[in-house]
Write a structure and sequence with these properties.
The chain is mainly α. The protein contains 14 helices and no strands. α3 crosses α4 and α6 runs antiparallel to α7.
Length: 326
C-alpha cells in the first residue's frame, strides 16, 4: 500500500482538479456546446509537431548520455527515451520515467550508476536553462500583457521569483564549488564523493562545448514544437491563437505542470489554460480546456512508441532477472 500511496494521492488530486473545473454550470454548458474539431486538418500538423518534439528529445538524451560518459547507440537511447515517457504516463507507482531510465542504465553499466544519474541531470538541466531563459525574456518583453488581470499577474509574479531563485542557486553552487574555501568545507560532507561527481558533470558540460550547445539547441526546438502542438490544436477547434501568445504562455504552463501534484499534470494543466487563455487570448474557458486536453492527448500518443521497448525489457527480465539488458 505504501508503495502506491503517492500515486493514489496524485490520482485523487487529479480527480479533484477536474471536479473543481467542472463545478461551474456555465462551463459545463459551454463544454457540451463545443463541437468536434471544426478544422480537423490542423490535427495532423499537431501530431507531426509532437513527433518532432520527441525526436529532438531523443537526440538530446543521446548527447547527454555521451556527455556523462555512457557509450550507447542512438537506437538504444531512443528506446530508453520512449520507455521513459511511457512509464511516466501510464504505469502506476512512484517510479517516474527518469528513475526507470537510470535503473536500466545501471543494469547495463553497473560501474557507471552515477553517470546514469548525471545523464538525467544534464537532460533536465538543459531543459531548465532554456525554459527559464525563455520565461525571463518573455516576461521582460510582454510583462504588461501577461499582467492584464489579477489572476494572470499572480501566476507570473509567483513563478518568476521561484525560477530566479533556482537559477541563482544553481549558478552560485556552480561557482562556489570551485573555490578553495568551499572545497575544504565540502570535504566534511558525508556525500563529498557525489558532490565531486556532480562537479565533474559540470566540467563535462563545459569541456565539450559543441555537444552542450547542441543539447541546448535541441531543447529550444523541443520547446517550440511542444508549443506548436497546442497552437495547432487551437486552430483545429477554430480559434486563431497567435503563435507569439502560446510561445509566451507555455513556459509558465510548463513550470506549473512540472509540479508532481497530479498524474502527468492532468487537471492542473487545464486549470492553468482556463485561467490564462480567456483573458489574454480571448478564447472561451470551455475551449481552453478542450485545447489543453486535445494537445495533451496528441503529445501523449507518441508515448505508445515505448510499448515495444517496455515489452522487450519485461520479457528479458522474466527470462533472466539478473542479466543486464543489452
Amino acid at each position: 500500500m505504501k508503495r502506491h500511496a503517492w500515486f493514489i494521492i496524485r490520482l485523487v488530486l487529479t480527480i479533484a482538479f477536474f471536479v473543481w473545473l467542472f463545478r461551474n454550470p456555465d462551463l459545463r454548458k459551454q463544454l457540451a456546446a463545443v463541437p468536434s474539431p471544426s478544422q480537423p486538418v490542423w490535427l495532423l500538423p499537431a501530431f507531426i509537431a509532437a513527433g518532432l518534439n520527441e525526436c529532438f528529445g531523443v537526440f538530446r538524451w543521446w548527447i547527454c548520455l555521451h556527455l556523462a560518459g555512457i557509450p550507447v547507440t542512438l537506437r538504444r537511447a531512443a528506446a530508453l527515451h520512449f520507455l521513459g515517457i511511457f512509464t511516466s504516463l501510464f504505469l502506476p507507482g512512484v517510479v517516474g520515467g527518469d528513475a526507470v531510465k537510470i535503473a536500466l542504465l545501471a543494469l547495463q553499466f553497473p560501474q557507471q550508476k552515477f553517470s546514469a544519474v548525471l545523464a538525467v541531470f544534464m537532460d533536465r538541466l538543459s531543459g531548465f536553462v532554456v525554459i527559464s531563459s525563455w520565461l525571463l525574456i518573455a516576461s521582460k518583453i510582454r510583462g504588461d500583457w501577461l499582467r492584464q488581470t489579477p489572476a494572470t499577474a499572480a501566476i507570473l509574479n509567483t513563478i518568476l521569483p521561484v525560477v530566479c531563485a533556482l537559477a541563482a542557486g544553481l549558478l552560485l553552487w556552480f561557482l562556489a564549488s570551485r573555490t578553495k574555501l568551499m572545497q575544504r568545507r565540502f570535504s566534511r560532507f558525508p556525500f563529498r564523493a557525489q558532490i565531486v561527481q556532480i562537479e565533474s558533470g559540470f566540467d563535462s558540460l563545459m569541456a565539450d562545448k559543441l555537444r552542450t550547445f547542441s543539447a541546448l539547441i535541441l531543447t529550444g526546438l523541443c520547446f517550440i514544437t511542444f508549443s506548436l502542438v497546442y497552437y495547432f490544436s487551437a486552430h483545429a477547434f477554430g480559434h486563431n491563437l497567435a503563435l507569439a501568445d502560446i510561445l509566451t504562455l507555455m513556459p509558465l504552463i510548463d513550470f506549473i505542470t512540472l509540479l508532481p501534484v497530479t498524474i502527468s499534470g492532468l487537471g492542473l494543466r487545464e486549470a492553468v489554460f482556463q485561467t490564462l487563455l480567456p483573458p489574454l487570448c480571448g478564447i472561451p474557458a470551455a475551449s481552453a480546456v478542450i485545447i489543453s486536453i486535445s494537445g495533451f492527448l496528441i503529445a501523449s500518443s507518441w508515448a505508445l512508441a515505448g510499448v515495444p521497448a517496455f515489452l522487450a525489457y519485461r520479457n528479458r527480465q522474466k527470462k533472466s532477472p539478473t542479466e543486464p539488458a543489452s
